[in-house]
């Protein structure tokens, strides 16, 4: 079955694709300021521990189920169910994953479109087209629609090309570019006045907060969401992995790359914020906390770039190019979840499924843009605070309780004949049964009460 539906041709291709799915806009702008505002290095230490004790086991649940079924989330959860009732519940959970992934992409594409627009704004500004540059950076209906559609079309174009020629091929190109661009920007920003203070805030630990329940829950949420878990993207990518690959090893590499890029981003964002402060740009909100997310990306950093003359324009182009790549590598995996279902369960050709589903997502994005003040935050809350934790809980339950233990071991033996003697097998089965569902429910409860 795997050969007729496509599969990753190499281990490197899978690692780049899965890492690209995990590395998104949140890794670049959200994680660094979250760390700085929650104990600095103390938060980093807790995050690193929890990434491997929660995110990695949950990631493995999706990868193992996906590789076993060589199918989309709906069929995969149905395939490992023991009774018709459990099969129907699993299929419903898989369908919910398709919807959540599509809704996430509907608002994600809007923000990603802004990244592309700001990148082009810096470029045309360098050429002297100030009026065009202002239109590209202004929050307007036309700008939002054009670049949202452009970004969705680009995502659909890659997914239409298939697993090997589309997803794998472009992930192998985009991820190395992302990493190199990030390292170049870090190297430059660290030479600027004020950068040292940013590093101090980011790296010096506040151990008085390291054991606080709020910090631990925040770190749990960051670790879980940073790997794009709970919507079936990793399950689908796992379904394209060859049977002879060692899944625990691949999952560990993907987790390590994702965490490394999130931590590396802190060496860019935090120093850049304090460089901006040194240049007279306000980086604190009215409550005294560091500005983060959209205000940071679209207000603070552009103001910093503007104080740097021509060099600032070049840095701005490079930065927003980096952000655009991070967005694209994630959006590909989100669209692929629904495309995989349409091609496998509904018999729709990929060349039709990808653009048709993309049009549906574009329609949802259009509704959000026309009622931005109400729908944008609502969709984000619905999908990331409620949808992802609950679906992640379902995946862990099916991997730990519903799927027979012998079936899981047999799947792992395909890539490692001695799997039952490995440390992974001694820990993971009971861990994904008991610890992961409990922790995910804690994240959900904390998000609900927030």
From TrEMBL:
Domain of life: Bacteria
Recorded topology in the membrane: Multi-pass membrane protein
CDD domains: SLC6sbd_Tyt1-Like (cd10336)
Compartments, as annotated in UniProt: Membrane
UniProt key word Membrane: yes
One Pfam assignment: SNF
TM helices/strands, residue ranges: 12-31, 43-65, 85-105, 111-129, 141-163, 175-195, 215-237, 249-275, 321-342, 354-380, 386-403, 430-449
Keywords: Membrane, Transmembrane, Transmembrane helix, Transport
Protein name as annotated: Sodium-dependent transporter
Species: Candidatus Marimicrobium litorale
């Amino acid at each position: 079955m795997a050969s007729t539906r496509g599969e990753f041709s190499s281990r490197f291709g899978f690692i780049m694709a899965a890492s690209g799915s995990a590395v998104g806009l949140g890794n670049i702008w959200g994680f660094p300021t979250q760390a700085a505002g929650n104990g600095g290095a103390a938060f980093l230490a807790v995050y690193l521990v929890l990434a491997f004790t929660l995110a990695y086991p949950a990631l493995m649940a999706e990868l193992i189920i996906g590789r076993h079924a060589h199918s989309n989330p709906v069929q995969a959860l149905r395939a490992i169910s023991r009774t018709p009732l459990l099969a129907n519940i699993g299929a419903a959970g898989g369908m919910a994953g398709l919807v959540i992934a599509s809704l996430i992409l509907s608002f994600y594409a809007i923000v990603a479109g802004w990244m592309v627009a700001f990148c082009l704004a810096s470029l045309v500004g360098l050429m002297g087209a100030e009026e065009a540059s202002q239109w590209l950076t202004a929050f307007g209906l036309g700008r939002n629609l054009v670049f949202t559609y452009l970004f969705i079309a680009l995502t659909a174009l890659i997914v239409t090309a298939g697993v090997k020629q589309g997803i794998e091929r472009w992930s192998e190109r985009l991820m190395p570019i992302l990493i190199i661009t990030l390292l170049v920007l870090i190297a430059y920003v660290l030479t600027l006045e004020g950068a040292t203070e940013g590093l101090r805030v980011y790296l010096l630990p506040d151990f008085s907060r390291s054991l606080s329940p709020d910090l631990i829950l925040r770190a749990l949420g960051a670790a879980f969401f940073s790997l794009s878990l709970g919507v079936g993207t990793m399950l689908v990518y796992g379904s394209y992995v060859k049977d002879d690959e060692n899944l625990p090893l691949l999952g560990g590499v993907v987790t390590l790359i994702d965490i490394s890029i999130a931590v590396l981003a802190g060496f860019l964002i935090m120093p850049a914020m304090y460089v901006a402060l040194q240049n007279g740009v306000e980086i604190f909100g009215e409550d005294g906390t560091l500005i983060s997310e959209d205000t940071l990306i679209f207000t603070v950093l552009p103001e910093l770039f503007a104080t740097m003359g021509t060099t600032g324009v070049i840095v701005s182009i490079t930065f927003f190019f980096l952000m655009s790549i991070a967005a694209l590598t994630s959006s590909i995996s989100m669209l692929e979840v629904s495309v995989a279902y349409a091609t496998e369960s509904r018999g729709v050709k990929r060349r039709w499924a990808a653009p048709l589903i993309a049009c549906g997502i574009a329609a949802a994005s259009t509704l959000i843009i026309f009622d931005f003040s109400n729908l944008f935050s609502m969709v984000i809350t619905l999908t990331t605070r409620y949808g992802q934790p609950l679906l992640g809980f379902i995946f862990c339950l099916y991997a730990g309780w519903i799927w027979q233990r012998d079936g899981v071991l047999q799947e792992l033996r395909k890539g490692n004949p001695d799997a039952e003697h490995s440390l992974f097998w001694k820990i993971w089965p009971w861990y994904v049964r008991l610890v992961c569902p409990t922790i995910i429910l804690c994240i959900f409860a904390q998000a609900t009460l927030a």
